[in-house]
Amino acid sequence: MALNGLRVGVEPCGMVADGDAFVAGEMERSEADFAVLAVTHEAEAAVDRGYFILSEVVVKTSQHAYCVLGRASTWGDSDLLSMELQLAAYVGLKRVLAPELSASTNLASYARTLLALVSNTAGVPLVVRVRAEEGAWARWNRVRMLCGHQVRLQVALELGDDACDLSQWRAEPVQLIVLPTRMFVGNAAGYPVLRKDHQAEIKRWMDHAVAYVIRQSEEDEDVNLIDYVRYLRFLAGTLEDPSAAAAASAEYRDVLQAPLQPLMDHLESATYETFEMDLPKYDHYEHAMMRAIQDSPQKEIVLMVVGAGRGPLVTRALRAARQAGRAVQVIAIEKNPSALVELQLRNANDWGHQVTLIRADMRGWVPTQRADILVSELLGSFGDNELSPECLDAACRLLLAPRGVCIPQSYAAYVAPLSSTLLHARAQAYGDGHGLETPYVVNIHAAHILAEPQLMWSFSHTQPSDQIAGDNRHNQRWATATFRVQSPSLVHGLAGYFDAVLYGNVELSIRPDTHTEDMHSWFPMYFPIKQPMTASPGDELTVHMWRRSRESRTWYEWAVESAGGEASSASSLIHNINAHEYWIGH
Ligand SMILES: C[S@@+](CC[C@H](N)C(=O)[O-])C[C@H]1O[C@@H](n2cnc3c(N)ncnc32)[C@H](O)[C@@H]1O
């Protein structure tokens, strides 16, 4: 089952005389959701006249506007295109297909016409038709750059006989996948089907918010479009159901969220509830605690959960102790006073009053006895971005016994360059135009990750507590990583990930290649860059990243440089210098 509802349209070959009649007749008979129809009959005479006469117009009324995608006249008079767009806006068409962008198109003049059109006509986005072929992406990229990344320019990608890698198109505003009928072959019963490689490609797109257009090729004038429409619906029906975790996170696809600040702010009960639904995360914690309890040389083990929230790790600690068959005294420390109310409730109802509850900031509480095992979950999407290093340094100094263990033992942050028109546009629109120098937590979907993520830095909590420095300078970092670009791309920023060693070989990861199965607590991070950067195959992209700290603030700064030979090197700004847009409060 597709995560997004499948919408299939038909585009008849040749001109349709009456759009309304086509929609009510052939389109409905083909079981399509919409039709692609010319707006007018290329009526150049209308330009001098200043208006269209009825016989020149295909879509005459707004009656069927909801199920018609307009097609502009072939390249020619830009005044005619302008009149067509006005008419399209008038009858309420939601989009208009622009003439094809091909190898023979003069890109500058094409871009100028499109930009003039979308700048003049309020409300009707233009969809640029491109064939998926060598050089197509570079042409589109030049046009959208010339148009200043206009968000009302979108893409209709027409597939052809050749199979080519379309992953870079997933970072683009592709609204339509066009399938000419000549791409189909006949099966044993004579019905149209797609080749295996085309099927696989179409299925990949079915997980994205695109619609499909069956374009009737000239040689297929007599075919029954209903067979093609039904075949696409059949293909969608063969998709596997998404896992529960994928279904739960689907509604957050490409939604930008400000990262949580659990140290500076007090979280709400509903936020804790969302955390608690991620059972695989707590299973891993329970396993790590059980192993640490088994390995402990102490007779009576003291286990502290620092930052206990509403208590899911406390429940798992008690279970781990039972499974290990060892006597464990559990102490829960939480600074959020409201969460402490729920902790008391659970202590009475579920834990038989056996847990000691402390309302305190772990950085300042002095215990009467120290912990043999100190458990926390203070991890953000970039590992250290919820200030786990700052909190655990202090907690290890104050609370941990000399040979005690900290769960997690260590965690590391990774980045990869990313292309995503959608994420960049959303970051640009975020926060009154200040949104491009701040990171976001986002379920990254309409994007192309340009290379394998690389390590930026790590933090470890395995050193003896008396060797942890009292100031925070040792938690500052500066890292550089270089990536080799494989395909022509427009870099819109960085994807950030983390992994963590909880204890021994019990690990958590949100890196795409090592992601902990079905864990959904953490979406990746997106660090935008203000000005997207073009990169060509073979170019090197160098990412610089800083973790800086001063007084009660910690923040990241980041920059990207590209080098493709002397003449084609470029550098982004160093983003968020001195925390001027984003910081994490201590
Ligand atoms: C990400 S939540 C995890 C909560 C809980 N362990 C869970 O798994 O649902 C982090 C918790 O740590 C608490 N916290 C953060 N910094 C703290 C500090 N310095 N001292 C005590 N609690 C802290 C927050 O209030 C929050 O409840």
UniProtKB/TrEMBL annotation:
Regions crossing the membrane: none
Span of domain PRMT5 oligomerisation: 410-584
Pfam families recorded: PRMT5, PRMT5_C, PRMT5_TIM
GO terms for MF: protein-arginine N-methyltransferase activity
GO cellular component, one term: cytosol
Gene3D superfamilies assigned to the protein according to its UniProt record, in alphabetical order: Divalent-metal-dependent TIM barrel enzymes, Hnrnp arginine n-methyltransferase1, Vaccinia Virus protein VP39
Residue stretches making up the PRMT5 TIM barrel domain: 78-235
Keywords recorded for this protein, A-Z: Methyltransferase, S-adenosyl-L-methionine, Transferase
BP GO annotations: methylation; regulation of DNA-templated transcription
List of catalytic residues: 377, 386
Residues with site note (Critical for specifying symmetric addition of methyl groups): 275
Residue intervals of the PRMT5 arginine-N-methyltransferase domain: 247-407
Binding locations of S-adenosyl-L-methionine: 272, 281-282, 334, 361-362
Family to which the UniProt record says this protein belongs: Belongs to the class I-like SAM-binding methyltransferase superfamily.
Protein's recorded name: Protein arginine N-methyltransferase
Organism: Coemansia pectinata
